[in-house]
TrEMBL record:
This is HXXEE domain-containing protein. The lineage of its organism: Bacteria, Bacillati, Bacillota, Bacilli, Bacillales. The chain crosses the membrane at residues 12-30, 100-120, 132-152, 164-182. The keyword Transmembrane helix applies. Pfam families: HXXEE (PF13787). Keywords: Membrane, Transmembrane, Transmembrane helix. InterPro entries: HXXEE (IPR025671). It comes from the Bacteria.
Length: 208
């Protein structure tokens, strides 16, 4: 468990590379919407790698710049909670859409999550940190955004984006953000957690 806690984002990178190889090798035979949804899944895995491995100091920014924590290495976010929340987002929220591409709202909700990442990293986090970049912003702009636009464009061309799908996907997305990101970080916080982030994951956001 400790190995997974330290390297879940590295495992995600490996899976992302394997998915890219699979999609490339089967580009001519995979239905286009399947390919787009696989790339959406890749986007969240690389997004998480950017946040927690390279450059990887999202945890420090989150705890110190956003919550002004006195113990940014473990509170409110810690290695355990970061692993749980991000694994659920990637493998429970994003991945099912790949296997059920005909359920449009199931695929559109992760696309909305990707757009949310652009707003969160591009504006909210940068304003709080008084910066022009934070880990997660690059993948949000150069992966989530183009994949999301591609999905919506394709879905419109196929006449599968109905008002009902927009409503259901928006509800699903909002619930996921609230439960996993807003409440999840609060439910799993622990001032005495032994699962501290590394110095790299803190960056310059230390106790001082």
């Amino acid at each position: 468990m400790n190995m997974l806690r330290k390297h879940w984002q590295d495992l995600g990178l490996i899976i992302a590379l394997l998915v890219c190889i699979y999609v490339t090798m089967n580009w001519g035979t995979l239905p286009r919407i399947n390919s787009i949804l696989w790339l959406s899944f890749v986007a969240i895995l690389l997004h998480q790698f950017e946040e927690y491995r390279w450059p990887g100091y999202f945890a420090g920014l989150f705890n110190k710049a956003l919550f002004h924590s006195d113990t940014p290495e473990r509170y409110p976010l810690n290695q355990q909670s970061a692993m749980i929340i991000n694994l659920i987002i990637a493998y429970v929220f994003y991945l099912p859409a790949v296997f059920f591409p005909s359920i449009v709202w199931l695929g559109l909700a992760p696309i909305l999550m990707g757009f949310f990442q652009i707003i969160w990293h591009g504006f909210f986090a940068n304003i709080k940190a008084k910066s022009i970049y934070n880990p997660g912003l690059f993948s949000a702009i150069f992966l989530h955004l183009p994949v999301g636009i591609w999905y919506i464009k394709y879905a419109y061309e196929q006449n599968i984006l109905t008002p009902t799908n927009w409503i259901l996907s928006t509800i699903y997305f909002v619930v996921a953000v609230y439960v996993l990101i807003v409440k999840g970080n609060m439910w799993l916080r622990n001032k005495n957690s032994s699962h501290s982030f590394s110095q790299i994951q803190l960056g310059s956001y230390t106790k001082k």
